[in-house]
Amino acid sequence: MEERSGKNKELFEELLFGPIEKLFGPLVDDEVKKHLSQARVELLKAMRVAIDREIEKAEKKKQD
Fold it and tell me: pTM above 0.90?
């Protein structure tokens, strides 16, 4: 499971941040990658909030 999670992280980062790395090339050093990785975490948190809200709406509709 841990191996799969690592692959998912790599894929997510490549899709989201690959274009940034290609655009800025050598400017993307370890410090920049650290910031991009933290941005990934924040984006996932935002997605979780949005999904939780949709779940709450669906549950509320079901109860009505």
Answer: no
